[in-house]
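In this supplementary section we document a worked example of the pipeline. Step one takes a protein sequence of length 407 as its only input; no multiple sequence alignment statistics are reported here. Step two produces a three-dimensional model, which step three serialises into structure tokens for compact storage. The input and output of this example are shown verbatim.
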Amino acid sequence: MKPLDGLIVLDLTRFLAGPYCTLLLGGLGAEVLKIEPPKGEDQRFRPPFAGPKGASIKKQTEEDVGLSFLHRARNKKGLTLNLRHPQGKEMFLRLCEKADVVVENFAAGTMDRMELGFPVLQARNPRLILCSISGFGQQGPRRAWRAYDPIIQAASGITSVTGYADRDPVRCGAAISDTTTPLYAVIGILSALQMREKTGQGEWVDMSMQDGSFFLLPEIMEFLAAGDEPQRLANAHVSGAPFNVYRAKDGFVSLCAVTQNDWRKLLAAIGRTELEGDPRFANLISRRDHRDVVDGIVQDWIGKHTVTEAVDHLQKSQVPAGPVLSPTELLHDEHIKSRGMIVDMQLPRGGNIPGVKGIGMPIKFMRNPVTFDQPAPAVGEHNEELYERLLGMDRSQVHALKEQGII
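The serialised model returned by step three reads:
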């Protein structure tokens, strides 16, 4: 049993933020119906590709599929439907009568232009929850702006505080706006479902990527309120020191020792207890004011050790520190593997892809574990099953719809 067993989700999403939201819902047990155009969505045809011969930038076989689709469409069932066709639109509305949730990440206003906006969906199913994920939300002066992750990072303040003070601002290397927004969306959907239990009514969850990314800056906004203008500090932090990345003999170590207790344990770990009475390091603010000196002390010690030596010794001394791991290193990291975060990737209709690994389910339950246990679907793989079960169509009707280009 999974937490969301029995929940039906209609998935109209594309790219990353939307599909990541429905990926999590599917992993939690919802029956996610991935609705694509009759020929399949664009993400299936974008590199890198993966197939029976492994992954590559160019297709190696006719079975190869875009790896982004294979990764983000796990635990989803494949439906094809032409929403531009009047009959296709009517079939979608009939599906809404059976569904609990619709998730879409079109530009704001697109669902209304398609005559599938929230009032229309509610008229068919008052209990239906619509989650709309967009760059700037469904309301506000920028609602019509087009956006991808870098645009949102820039517009939310992340880019302005990322990088080095004497260089141009840079975006976070991870697609942080695209991958955190779906977390808020899932929270919003689950909250709307809980509210529905009380009111019997559905809800429209309006998830703005800019809102979600701006929400990631609490400490910066708190210091700004105190008159401390945010600066680009690279790996350092506005609140104090030591808080940085330091070079070891064979790599880099991240270390954060910001509380007074952390500082005392660090000094004991590196053999510098005589500095406990130094007024330059008396508290968090004074250490921040002497950041360069503090960093020099830490760097001098870490630079004499390997990453493993430094991290093991610091952790044994209860000092927060860790290795800077590359994505390649993470694929072989014993801890993250033990957590089920490195998984085999499969082709539609089964079969592991040689040499290709994916990211596992980050939400863990101790009694009833959940995983991404189904591969991404082939184009229209579940048409017959779902149209027969949900809309009462027989096989001949489904085949006729396919011939007409409606599914």
